[in-house]
């Protein structure tokens, strides 16, 4: 069975990697799909191409994981994968109860409009506080994000926020 793990992944975090690694052991194939969200246009730190590059590098060690992008409804993407003999489900990671309430609504809608099933995977407790938004904020001040993201994400963030990291190094040195 195939699983689709959608998101903006701006950038991918250690929590995403935890959910993805566990999903890769549960499903024959997992496709990480960077969704184009018109409402977030211009609000992402990384371009689509940068995010795809980061994801491919971060997941290279997982042989049954592929990376793709899609614009439109997730259920339409999943339907493309459901052409016989394939069957796909949507993977969603959960960190807290507040995630569950939002994700439950989305899962019900995806089931209603596209007959797409959703499987929830709880992030490990150590990653329950990590979000892409918080990681970007910490990095924007030159903070240590090395445990919160895969190395390729950390390197990309340090490049984006090079001035903040240089300034912090001067202030601490």
UniProtKB/TrEMBL annotation:
> InterPro entries under this entry?
Cyt_trans-like, PPAT, Rossmann-like_a/b/a_fold
Cofactor (UniProt) = Mg(2+)
Task: Show the Gene3D superfamilies listed in the entry.
Answer: HUPs (3.40.50.620)
Give residue ranges for domain Cytidyltransferase-like.
4-137
| UniProt keyword annotations, A-Z | ATP-binding, Coenzyme A biosynthesis, Cytoplasm, Magnesium, Nucleotide-binding, Nucleotidyltransferase, Transferase
Identify the GO cellular component terms for this protein: cytoplasm
Q: Which reaction does it catalyse?
A: (R)-4'-phosphopantetheine + ATP + H(+) = 3'-dephospho-CoA + diphosphate
Q: Name one GO biological process term.
A: coenzyme A biosynthetic process
Q: Does the keyword Magnesium apply?
A: yes
Function in brief: Reversibly transfers an adenylyl group from ATP to 4'-phosphopantetheine, yielding dephospho-CoA (dPCoA) and pyrophosphate.
Read off the HAMAP family from this record. PPAT_bact (MF_00151)
Protein name as catalogued: Phosphopantetheine adenylyltransferase
Lineage start = Bacteria, Thermotogati, Deinococcota, Deinococci, Deinococcales
């Amino acid at each position: 069975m195939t699983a689709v793990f959608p998101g903006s992944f701006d950038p991918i975090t250690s929590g995403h990697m935890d959910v993805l690694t566990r999903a890769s052991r549960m499903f024959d194939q997992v496709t990480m799909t960077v969704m184009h969200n018109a409402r977030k246009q211009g609000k992402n730190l990384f371009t689509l191409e940068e995010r795809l590059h980061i994801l491919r590098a971060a997941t290279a060690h997982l042989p049954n994981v592929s990376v793709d992008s899609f614009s439109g409804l997730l259920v339409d993407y999943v339907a493309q994968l459901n052409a016989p003999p394939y069957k796909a489900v949507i993977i969603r990671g959960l960190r807290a109860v507040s995630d569950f309430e939002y994700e439950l609504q989305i899962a019900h809608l995806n089931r209603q409009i596209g007959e797409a099933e959703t499987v929830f995977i709880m992030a490990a407790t150590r990653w329950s506080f990590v979000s892409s938004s918080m990681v970007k904020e910490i990095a924007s001040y030159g903070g240590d994000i090395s445990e919160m993201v895969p190395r390729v994400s950390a390197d990309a963030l340090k490049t984006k926020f090079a001035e903040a990291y240089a300034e912090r190094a001067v202030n601490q040195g």
